[in-house]
Design goal:
- The structure holds two protein chains of two kinds.
- Chain A is elongated and about 55 Å long.
- Chain A has two helices and three strands.
- By secondary structure, chain A is of the alpha+beta class.
- The longest helix of chain A has 5 residues.
- By secondary structure, chain B is of the alpha/beta class.
- Chain B folds into two domains: 207 residues, Rossmann fold (3-Layer(aba) Sandwich); 146 residues, Irregular (Cytochrome-c3 Hydrogenase, Chain A, domain 2), CATH 4.10.480.10.
- A five-stranded parallel β-sheet of chain B has the order 2-1-3-7-9, sandwiched between helices.
- In chain B, a hairpin with a 2-residue loop joins strand 5 and strand 6.
- In chain B, helix 3 crosses helix 11 and helix 18 packs antiparallel against helix 19.
- The termini of chain B are far apart.
- Classes of the chains: A alpha+beta, B alpha/beta.
- At the A-B interface, helix 1 of A face helix 4, helix 6 and strand 5 of B.
């Protein structure tokens, strides 16, 4: 019984962490976490819709 | 790993000496160096030393990485990957997890590398909004900066805080220069930055052993020393008072000035009009949208659709009127139109015209033109 964490996952755009639970050589559970947060939804709140496209395309 | 010179790499890839010299002259051009310096650049790049690079990504969208990887001019693209020995870059490295972290640690321990940072650094709640390998971006940046020769921030986020810092800045994002104060920090803002400016910065670093001259915002003057407006290909239309008034109108189809559609070119410093993006393919203004000011601090607060406030919003009297009246050909109007053509050339010509045109008794030099 072991828990393996791979962080960072490379060759992707963005930040990702994967944890897997391994029991007798079989993966029994797994968790993925996005380890970066900018709050773009919070930034968009109350702004003019005419600039929303420039912001959301930076996701 | 860092033993072969740039010239060796060029030969290994089957590129000719001519390609190598073309690259050297391109770099001299971007850096605005006089021709004799090309020899010095050539000498520096032929020497057996390649600079190790650690490229860290924090609160980013990987857009600057994409710009870096999409440098499509083959010689430049391959050179940039080999002029540099990129020891750590999450988006392109083969290793992942703890092996990736080990590679970074080995480079940090060896020291003498350039640290490239993409993305801002969140400081709210002790920095938990960006963690890599279980450590916060705040922590990782400080550790990596300690042994770096210099730090280069690519993109507006790492240079000035960028999108994450946009109001209300939910994660209290900070720029690199707010956190790293004991190392030379150079900013290459832009959204994304232009990879040719990173290549040129590194070539400058290898040739002269120091970072290029910078402005007060730590931006290299060779790339950020002039306003977009001053070198804009649509500038002639601004001087002639020919403005796009609505998307898709006649002026828009004719490529007129985008100032009245909210173009931020007059307050933005960047070399976009000269180097363009995607290896000289195009840039926003040429494609029909105004500049959004992405190389300036806090540009997300400007409102991309609002017009900017210039110091003198009303063009000086020496500028041509916005509506040029249709006139029949006669000696007087020919002289006036000749004067207008001169104005379109630039402010210097305009000033000269003003000096030569004596105001009439009503004090109105342009009364003739408005008839």
């Amino acid at each position: 019984m072991a828990k393996i964490a791979i962080d960072p996952i490379t060759r992707i755009e963005g930040h990702l962490r994967i944890e897997v639970q391994v029991d007798d050589g079989v993966v029994t559970d797994a968790w993925s976490s996005s380890t970066m947060f900018r709050g773009i939804e919070l930034i968009l709140k109350g702004r003019d819709p005419r600039e929303a496209w420039t912001m959301t395309q930076r996701i | 790993m860092v033993s072969s010179s740039v010239q060796d790499v060029v030969s290994e890839r089957g590129l000719s000496r001519r390609d190598f010299l073309k690259f050297c002259s391109l770099m001299a051009g971007v850096l605005a160096l006089p021709r004799p310096y090309m020899k010095r650049i050539e000498k520096a790049l032929a020497a057996p030393a390649r600079t190790p690079v650690i490229w860290l990504e924090f609160q980013d969208c990987a857009g600057c990485t994409e710009a870096f990887l999409r440098a499509s001019r083959p010689t430049a693209a391959e050179l940039i990957l080999d002029v540099l020995s990129v020891d750590y870059h999450e988006t392109i490295m083969a290793a992942s997890g703890h092996r990736a972290e080990e590679a970074k640690q080995t480079s940090i321990d060896a020291g003498g590398y350039l640290l490239v940072v993409e993305g801002s650094i969140p400081s709210a709640e002790d920095g938990i909004y960006c963690c890599i390998g279980g450590r916060t971006a705040l922590d990782i940046l400080q550790e990596a900066a300690a042994n770096a020769l210099a730090v280069v921030s690519v993109g507006n986020c790492s240079s000035f805080g960028g999108l994450p810092k946009a109001s209300p800045n939910p994660t209290e994002a900070l720029s690199v220069m707010e956190l790293v104060t004991d190392k030379p920090v150079l900013n290459l803002p832009g959204c994304p930055y232009n990879p040719v400016n990173l290549t040129a910065t590194i070539v400058h670093f290898l040739t002269f052993g120091e970072l290029p001259a910078m402005d007060s915002l730590h931006r290299p003057l060779f790339a950020y020393g002039a306003r977009i407006h001053d070198n804009c290909e649509r500038r002639g239309h601004f001087d002639a008072g020919e403005f796009v008034k609505e998307w898709g109108d006649e002026g828009h189809r004719k490529g007129w000035c985008l100032y009245q559609m909210g173009c931020k070119g007059p307050v933005t410093f960047h070399n976009c009009p000269a180097v363009r993006y995607n290896d000289g393919t195009n840039w926003p203004v040429a494609s029909g949208h105004g500049c959004i000011g992405c190389s300036e601090p806090d540009f997300w607060e400007f409102g991309i659709y609002t017009t900017i406030e210039l110091d003198a919003f009303t063009p000086p009297t020496t500028y041509a009127p916005v509506q040029i009246p249709a006139q029949s050909i006669d000696p007087t109007s020919t002289a006036v139109m000749g004067g207008l053509a001169g104005l379109a050339i630039g402010a210097a010509g305009a000033a000269a015209y003003q000096a030569l045109s004596k105001p009439d008794e009503n004090g109105d030099a342009s009364s003739e033109e408005k008839e």
